[in-house]
Amino acid sequence: MTPAKIPSVAVLAEARRRAEQAAHDADAANSTQATSVDAQQDKPSPAAGEHEDEPDPRIGRKDKVLPARFAQAGQQLFTSQEWEAQRLAAFQGHAHEALAVGVRELGGPLEQFAIPRRAAGPRDIVIDLEYCGLCHSDVHTARGEWGSRALPLVTGHEMVGRVCAIGSEVYNRQVGERVGVGCMVGSCRVCEPCKRQDEQFCIHNAVGTYGAWDAPHSERTQGGYATSIVVPEDFVLSIPEQIGPAHAAPLLCAGITMYAPLEDLRVGPGDKVAVAGIGGLGHMAIKLAAAMGAEVTALTRTPAKAEDARRLGAHEVVLTTDEDALDAARGRFTVLVDAISAPHDVGALLDLLAPRGTVVLAGLPADTDGAAMPLVDPRTLVNRGLRLAGTKIGGIEQTQRMLEFCAAHGVVPDVEIVTAADMNEAWDRMVAGELHYRGVLDIGSLDSNLNA
Ligand SMILES: [Zn+2]
Ligand SMILES: [Zn+2]
């Protein structure tokens, strides 16, 4: 449905300029009011001049961002009431248009086109997006490997940007603040899993960030390969200022997918963790498990990845094509994270576990490939008290905890920045395992001149 009224590109550009100005003003205010910052913050406020530091190349650009929870509830940074009214008027009650990269048919090429974004409600946040990670799920979905979807389809569920506008009943967000959105943009919020902060397991199905029916808003969701998005405040995450936006993006799917099982299994010093499949997911598992204090072994069939796995933090590498090395590794690991997305023999991985050990499945093959995977012999599990588990992203609270953990431990993904023009090639390279390790779309590269 075409929205009746769409704010012009000029309104959006003005909103972006205002958001940047608000971030800048807040930064300056923060420097001079260091003692009044909310006590909930773990980190001391930056001293005046600290923002002039050289950026840390390991974690990307050190952007000027508002500290989360900077202000008291309801406090606004705006000095201009006129702008405040204009900002709300632009989004609350009015749909707007975003420029996006998506497919017009399943399996078709990625193209640029405009999509409508719904009117922001009183508890919504409008985000001006900066980066969006490329996930294997995007490709599976857009190529029809996980069933049919409404078209056109814009994928992307690892997005980071700045708050561009907030609904009139949003009290804990500031315009200009850096935020992120992961794989969900809604859930029922009243079922048992939702009440346990396991929104990903909502019995009424969490609303996927793209290609899902969002019943409360009567629309199909469209993802983060786009210049903006409108999201309920409960599904918006704070991005710690220590993590640059391009590096923060992949944490919102790949990061949480690997963090959740490690935290759930209380991985720490004394654990021997193996990671199978060193790609977008697996490379995060190595970094996270090492940061948690575990002894980490990378399992790979590619000799070229051995050195890289050590650089990522693996203490040891076992080539799965080397039968002797595999034999020596049998019965050793307390936890094995299986991030292989191609069909493979899980039973062979179970053999590598110590008694009571756990294999966690995190990679998902295409529907047709999954049926081809060999079954696990029950005796493999029973005889040594092994556990075979699955994991699926994490709840919003756990995702926020993951972001704070990554900020505190300097854990960030290895990223390759991709422009909109290179997206088709980037998807092919991701499928071929050639991206190191997570592709991230620079939203600034979308070109309204190519708008078809
Ligand atoms: Zn994903
Ligand atoms: Zn629910």
From TrEMBL:
Region (Disordered): 15-61
Annotated InterPro entries: ADH-like_C, ADH-like_N, ADH_Zn_CS, CAD-like, ER, GroES-like_sf, NAD(P)-bd_dom_sf
Pfam families (alphabetical): ADH_N, ADH_zinc_N
Origin: domain of life: Bacteria
Catalytic activity: a primary alcohol + NADP(+) = an aldehyde + NADPH + H(+)
Domain Enoyl reductase (ER): 108-441
Compositionally biased tracts (Basic and acidic residues): 15-27
Cofactor: Zn(2+)
Coiled-coil regions listed in the entry: none
The enzyme's E.C. designation: 1.1.1.2
Keyword Zinc: yes
Biased composition (Polar residues): 30-43
GO molecular function, one term: oxidoreductase activity
Broad enzyme group: oxidoreductase
Keyword terms of this UniProt record: Metal-binding, Oxidoreductase, Zinc
Family stated for the protein in its record: Belongs to the zinc-containing alcohol dehydrogenase family.
Protein name, per record: alcohol dehydrogenase (NADP(+))
Organism from which the protein derives: Pseudoglutamicibacter albus
